[in-house]
Specification:
Layout (H helix, E strand, L loop, with lengths): L1 H52 L4 H11 L3 E8 L2 E4 L10 E7 L2 E7 L2 H79 L6 H23 L9 E4 H10 L2 H7 L2 E6 L3 E4 L1 H18 L7 E9 L2 E8 L24 H11 L3 E7 L2 E9 L2
Parallel strand pairs: 6-8
Antiparallel strand pairs: 1-2, 1-4, 3-4, 5-7, 8-9, 9-11, 10-11
Length: about 375
């Protein structure tokens, strides 16, 4: 805001200075023409007084004066209670009227002030035009500055996120090698001890090893940009294939599933998009764990230039506005990488992913360009 203060102040001062100049010019012009009219009235008075003093006809003298005057266009005088128009007069209500008394006459003089009004109208039009273009210029300037700072903010956010990931990667890089070595040792021990321990505990040990292995692989992927291998794929078949992987789990959890997907062929990486959808469906199922109303909707349809996939659960809440950031998880055993990887996959395809609550449904919306 401080950066905007100087140009805004400069524009305001400039505009006020121009408006004041036009205002003072208009007043000076009016005063000048009023002065000219008073001078003209004084000359008319001298002519009338001189004619009366010389025994001449003041009306005839005034008629002659009007013929040569550029300002005086008409005159009237009162005689015995009647108002008489001086011959050759052009009387208009738009003319400026000035009274003149020369005994025994009382004259009303009509001066053409129309060009002054025209000039005032012209100045008013200039002022309005100036105001309009100044406001337009200010609006465009503010919009451009706003867009500039908007881009700067986005750039700074991306920069901060990148720096954050780089700092995380420094830690990851130093840990991954050691963890992988430990995993290999654990796998070897699990294999050798399989015959001497309870199979139940051994299975749990293997599951924990697999989970830790998956965590290591997902974490390692953060160090490098995601790459995709596109091929023409029927997105509706891909979605249905992902859903089929959860058939047994949905039945076990007693979750009602509603599916409605529109057929479309897109250029995409089926493995990566499949991974994205698995993370979203799994996330939706986990969100309904302690919910009385257990419903899941998966919709897919064309919307303008995008194919949009909606994964909706009846949980009706989002744990955080930063759910797509890495290492943010509300689950006790979660690593906070599933939704982050989903975001990376969507953006790698030129699309985006959003999360919001609408009509008591938690909605994850994935948009992938059709072409």
């Amino acid at each position: 805001m401080r950066k905007l203060l100087f140009p805004a102040s400069l524009l305001t001062i400039l505009f006020v200075a121009i408006v004041l100049n036009i205002y003072f010019l208009r007043n000076e012009l009016n005063e000048f023409y009023l002065f000219v009219i008073k001078e003209e009235t004084s000359r008319v008075k001298s002519v009338v007084e001189g004619t009366i003093a010389g025994g001449g006809d003041p009306v005839e003298a005034l008629t002659s004066y009007m013929e040569n005057s550029k300002l005086l266009k008409g005159a009237t005088f009162k005689l015995e209670g009647r108002e008489i128009i001086v011959p050759g007069s052009d009387i208009s209500q738009e003319y400026f009227k000035e009274s003149l008394e020369v005994q025994p006459f009382f004259f009303t003089l009509y001066f053409d002030f129309s060009y002054v009004r025209e000039l005032n109208r012209h100045l008013s039009c200039v002022l309005i035009s100036l105001l309009f273009f100044s406001l337009l210029f200010t609006a465009v300037t503010v919009w451009l500055v706003r867009e500039y700072f908007k881009e700067r903010i986005l750039y700074e956010r991306e920069k901060q996120e990148k720096e954050k990931l780089e700092s995380i990667n420094l830690v990851i890089h130093s840990l991954i090698h050691e963890v992988k070595n430990r995993l290999n040792v654990l796998r070897l021990l699990a294999y050798r001890l399989g015959s001497s321990f309870d199979e139940t505990y051994l299975q749990k040990l293997r599951e924990e090893i697999d989970k830790l292995g998956k965590y290591v692989e997902e974490t390692a992927d953060l160090r490098k940009p995601i790459t995709i291998s596109r091929r023409r794929t029927d997105i509706s078949l891909l979605i249905r294939d992902v859903i089929s992987k959860f058939d047994e789990l949905l039945k076990t959890k007693r979750i009602d599933l509603e599916t409605k997907v529109e057929k479309a062929e897109l250029e995409l990486d089926p493995e990566k998009v499949s991974s994205l959808l698995i993370d979203l469906v799994k996330n939706g199922i986990e969100a309904l764990e302690n919910n009385k109303k257990k419903k899941l909707k998966i919709l897919g349809k064309k919307e303008k230039n995008y194919y949009t996939i909606y994964v909706m659960d009846s949980g009706g809440k989002l744990p955080s506005t930063k759910i797509f950031e890495p290492f943010r998880s509300t689950k006790k055993k979660g690593f906070g990488l599933g939704l982050y990887n989903a975001k990376r996959v969507a953006e790698a395809h030129g699309g985006k992913i959003e999360a919001f609550v609408r009509n008591s449904w938690t909605v994850f919306k994935v948009s992938i360009p059709i072409s």
